[in-house]
């Protein structure tokens, strides 16, 4: 029986693991995909203290791995399938094993939403980092006007012929830092109060994108990226916690004895690396008591 099981190795889960390990706890850190979670995919990590200039999500993820290794914390790459609360312990089943623990920290994060349209077999992407060759000289549509979408649109503009940001709000929702860079770019056009409604695909290429108020065409092919928000990964705890719009309404210390929540899986005013790390820190300390 483990003292603590932590589900999710993003910034929140890693932080929780570091603080619990420092307090002498026997822990298990489960991750189904990659250390860092969503942040591992971004082209540039920003607004977090101590970052290097132009540090990619991949580089940030490696720092998390290095810190876990330094603290002698192993990452067990298994997908959690179910969580069950017994009288005085938790039963966690994965795609490979079954584990028991006295305390459980759920830091499973979130996943990106998809557009509510028929992609017609065309591959729509979320993250440009690693796809730079496919962007060169292309027309690219970025759906979404948040900080994340705007930051990725700016990265794409380094390679693409032109970038169209499609935002269903009446103005870009990103911070001034990104807004000023977008306004200064001669490659980026912003479409507000509109949405992508349909696409036309020929020979495995998207050659036409139909918006509410205009059509974007390119016979050489259009690349489409989607950054329209996230849904919380809360299915595993739906019987143990209160959920609203796929996110947990719970505090870090949940209503279930021994169960803690951390990171972007929770409803919070601000979702950033800094707040995820703060959640994980508190969860790790509280679960260790």
Automatic annotation (TrEMBL):
Primary enzyme class: oxidoreductase
EC identifiers of the protein: 1.8.1.9
GO molecular function, one term: thioredoxin-disulfide reductase (NADPH) activity
Record keyword DNA damage present: no
InterPro entries (alphabetical): FAD/NAD-bd_sf (IPR036188), FAD/NAD-binding_dom (IPR023753), Ferredoxin-NADP_redctase_2 (IPR050097)
Organism listed in the record: Anaerococcus lactolyticus ATCC 51172
Keywords: Flavoprotein, Oxidoreductase
All residue ranges annotated as the FAD/NAD(P)-binding domain in the record: 2-280
UniProt keyword Oxidoreductase, yes or no: yes
The protein, known as: Pyridine nucleotide-disulfide oxidoreductase
């Amino acid at each position: 029986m483990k003292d603590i099981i932590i589900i999710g190795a993003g910034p929140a889960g890693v932080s929780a693991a570091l603080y619990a390990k420092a307090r002498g706890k026997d822990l298990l850190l489960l991750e189904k995909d990659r250390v860092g979670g969503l942040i591992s995919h971004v082209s540039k990590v920003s607004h977090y203290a101590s970052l290097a200039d132009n540090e990619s999500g991949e580089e940030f993820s490696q720092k998390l791995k290095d810190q876990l290794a330094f603290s002698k914390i192993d990452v067990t790459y298994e997908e959690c399938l179910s969580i069950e609360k017994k009288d005085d312990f938790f039963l966690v089943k994965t795609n490979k094993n079954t584990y028991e623990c006295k305390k459980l920290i759920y830091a499973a994060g979130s996943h990106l939403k998809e557009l509510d349209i028929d992609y017609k077999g065309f591959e729509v992407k979320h993250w440009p980092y690693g796809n730079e060759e496919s962007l060169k000289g292309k027309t690219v549509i970025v759906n979404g006007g948040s900080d994340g979408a705007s930051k990725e649109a700016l990265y794409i503009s380094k390679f693409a012929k032109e970038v169209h940001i499609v935002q269903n709000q009446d103005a870009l929702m990103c911070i001034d830092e990104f807004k000023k860079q977008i306004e200064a770019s001669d490659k980026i056009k912003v479409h507000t109060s509109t949405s992508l409604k349909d696409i036309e695909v020929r020979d495995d290429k998207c050659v036409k994108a139909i918006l509410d108020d205009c059509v974007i065409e390119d016979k050489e092919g259009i690349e489409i990226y989607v950054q329209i928000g996230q849904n919380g990964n809360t299915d595993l705890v739906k019987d143990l916690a209160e959920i609203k719009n796929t996110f947990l309404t719970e505090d870090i210390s949940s209503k279930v004895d021994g169960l803690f929540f951390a990171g972007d899986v929770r409803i919070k005013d601000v979702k950033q690396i800094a707040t995820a790390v703060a959640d994980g820190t508190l969860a790790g300390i509280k679960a260790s008591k």
